[in-house]
Amino acid sequence: MPMLLERGGETPERWTLIDEAAPLPPEGAVIVPLERLDEAIATGPALRLGLTLPNDASVTPLRPRFQRLALVRVVFPTFSDGRGFSLARRLRSAGYAGRLRAAGPLIADQFGHLLACGYDEVEVADAVAARQPAEQWLAALGKITRFYQSRPDAAPIAAARHARGA
Amino acid sequence: MYRYDEFDHRLVAERAGEFRAQVARRLDGSLTEDEFKPLRLMNGLYLQLHAYMLRVAIPYGTLDGRQMRRLAEIAERWDRGYGHFTTRQNIQFNWPKLKDVPDILDALAEVEMHAIQTSGNCIRNVTSDPLSGVAPEEIEDPRITAELIRQWSTLHPEFTFLGRKFKIAVTGSEHDRTAVMLHDIGLQIVRNEAGEVGYRVLVGGGMGRTPMIAGELRAFLPKADLLRYLEAALRVYNLHGRRDNKFKARIKILVHERGIDSYRDEVEAEFAALDGSDLVVPADEELARITAYFAPPALPEREEAPAVLERVKRQDPGFARWVGQNTHPHRVPGYTAVTVSLKPIGAPPGDATAEQMRAMAEVAERYSADELRVTHEQNVVLPHVALADLYQVYRGLAAVGLDAANRGLVTDIIACPGLDYCALATARSIPVAQEIQKRFASPERQAEIGPLSIKISGCINACGHHHVGHIGILGLDKAGVESYQITLGGDATETAALGQRTGPGFSYDQVPGVIGTLVERYLELRQGRETFLQTYRRVGMEPFKEALYADAA
User: Fold this and answer.
1) What value does the mean pLDDT of chain B take?
2) A44 CA to chain B: closest CA distance, Å?
3) Complex ipTM
């Protein structure tokens, strides 16, 4: 099972990944591919729903379904394909308020960027986790303490600068 | 000029610490070479043909004497005693060792410098007009905007893994010295009909293997909207720019394939939806704080037409030529901006030794309000020199061989590092530049020819900007032999144009003669004081082509 990390450290996996073919359970928490979303919604409210989203997906058609989604899992095909950063921003600015997960061969050095763009957690690929255990991911977060941009958990440098002068 | 406060200092120091840890994690195997590569690139570290190369940012090209002295120290202590000023107003060191790089970054951080985002698929060091705050026609000092963008783009969490590099330039004058139309985004500070100052936004310019002139994205963008608009423009690019082919991944391809109107529609929609929560806030106070740093220096009143200047010019014709060619009008009477040419005959264009860097620092500290600017033409500008001090400045520069009176002339050549340093190069460029310089070494001859920009690239990536040289030279590899294509009519200014190919290429040995033939033909054709470019635009390619290929036909 892949390592799952949030800001505070490792967290247990509570979701089951459902592929294109597997039957949907009547209840529980499942992450389904985009093409099975409507089917999963039709299963009923007892099923907690997560959605796997490719990084080139369009946000607009999803907006009416935001209320039904407890998790969106954005897949990064490679760590250097940064579309998922902008997709997260788009999801957040479109009003998606559920959990946001990044999945794929991402590296520890990107943890801060991911959290800053609105992700809550990262599903670390096994091959990366073998070389970069949780400590490296958490250590990467502390390397730079204040940024020019505002982040979900921190005001930007300019705000601190002028608060100090005020 | 801009000064770091504790926040800027801390960020740069922490970033150096982060990279030190990344180097250690590469060495212990935590990071693979593929994973480490973009991290080192975003810290300015390239793997070149023979060694690593470190590219140090000089934000918008402005630095002071202390910083220039530190660059000299780095050149001596960790490199081979020289550095190379680039077409993006940065400096490159060609021979650092990987293990020394964290120490070099620490040494830079001490003087408010760094190598952040000088490479990699992120927003690069913002460039600007070397005559900022000097040029009489300027609407507003563009470095204020450039500094705002520097902060906004530094370690931007969303735009650190773009499809490709992203270059932004800002100009505050109508006469463009930043090649603003050849950037991914170009910003021109303009006034609208109501007299308000804002930006004309250009998008999709660039050189490389598919050169394009930027198109107009917005005729007028209010100042307060700048960062939000840039955020929208970058987001659309990040999401929709091509990722399947690195040679088609720049924003110019996206704009070209979709059409600028379609791209604009998406940006405007994204812009309208942005809530502004991500900006460098509070915008007004921060802008005021930055603006104060770029207040014009207090220049004491000096003689407007010092008699001593005229007398020395009469006594020293070399000095007179240098004053005529290498100075630029200043908005303050009695002052001028001096171009220090880094193109002495026979030296690699843009290179400066540690000794030369110290001499430039010394002159800047004593005679130019402690400021220097790097130009995209790979020269250095002393922006605030009193006319009465010009001779001392000249002597100080001449002592280290930096008195070439060739700014904008045929020997003021831009050349990429080429096959001598670069892993991508297909041909030599620096030796080509040197051979052309030798052919036109005579100052009288250069003055007679007048303004003529020759730009040389050693491969189709076009780092030597050959597409926008009045004469462009592109070195290729034809079955193991260097072959040079010639283009004519390129222009990097507000009348930007891409050069057109003359025809079949020439061998390495033929190039200086080819340039000689083109210049001869121009001198025969020109009317009155017409420049090479004006003549070319009037007569077209044919007469030049005929001169080059008549014998072969």
Assistant:
1) 94
2) 32
3) 0.96
